[in-house]
Design goal:
single chain; 210 residues; alpha/beta; Rossmann fold; Arc Repressor Mutant, subunit A; 6-stranded parallel sheet; 10 helices; 13% strand
Length: 210
């Protein structure tokens, strides 16, 4: 597997490279020190797995979620592992909503990064034990009695979460854009959701998309 590493700290990149090289099935094909150099590198270097920090200084994509969103849109088949220090529950959920399969805490990367690489290569989610406990301790959404969506609302949410736009969904269903937008708004109201990121998180956690 071809691996690219992105982190703004040279010492961290050295450590990550050493861990990746322990896997005889992996080869580090490039390194980046920020979002801008990462996007440039991805444009010229084929990559199967991206191992990246979440928050790196940069000009065009300094926001971690925006960077991940652009990478996912441009390279949908590439697997992403975050190696990060953050432990904010909302951000963790939003990161998974962007299609990231692996999140590894920097404090545990030596033990867990090889496991994360194997998991995402098999298409399975991986999250560090410490971060998993954080998610379990703070779960504002009860799963015991989930809100009921209509069949049409369910399909609209599922398609939005899979990456389709409202216009594309309208075209596929042969409905108007206003109708799809109304169904999206109704679904969000039923779910108590206020923005697209939360909608994507709900869809993934509910098993609508994987």
């Amino acid at each position: 597997m071809r691996v690219i590493i992105a982190d703004d700290h040279p010492v961290v990149r050295i450590g990550l490279r050493m861990l990746v090289n322990l896997n005889r099935h992996c080869e580090v094909v490039g390194e980046a020190d920020g979002p801008d150099s990462l996007l440039d590198l991805l444009a010229t270097t084929p990559c199967d797995v991206l191992i990246t920090d979440f928050s790196m200084p940069g000009n065009s994509q300094a926001d971690g979620l925006k960077m991940l969103s652009q990478v996912r849109r441009t390279y949908p088949k590439m697997q992403i592992i975050l190696v990060t220090m953050f432990a904010n529950v909302t951000t963790l959920r939003a990161v998974f909503a962007q299609g990231v399969l692996g999140i590894v805490a920097k404090g545990a990367s030596a033990q867990e990064l090889p496991l994360a690489i194997k998991s995402v290569a098999d298409g399975r989610r991986f999250i560090s034990e410490s971060l998993r406990l954080t998610l379990l301790q703070v779960d504002p959404r009860t799963q015991a009695n989930p809100p009921a969506l209509s069949a049409k609302e369910y399909e609209v949410v599922r398609m939005l979460a899979s990456g389709m736009t409202v216009s594309e969904i309208a075209n596929q269903f042969k409905r108007s854009v206003s109708t799809i937008s109304r169904q999206k708004i109704m679904a969000m109201q039923r779910l108590g959701i206020s923005n697209d990121v939360e909608l994507f998180v709900y869809a993934r956690e509910s098993g609508m998309v994987h």
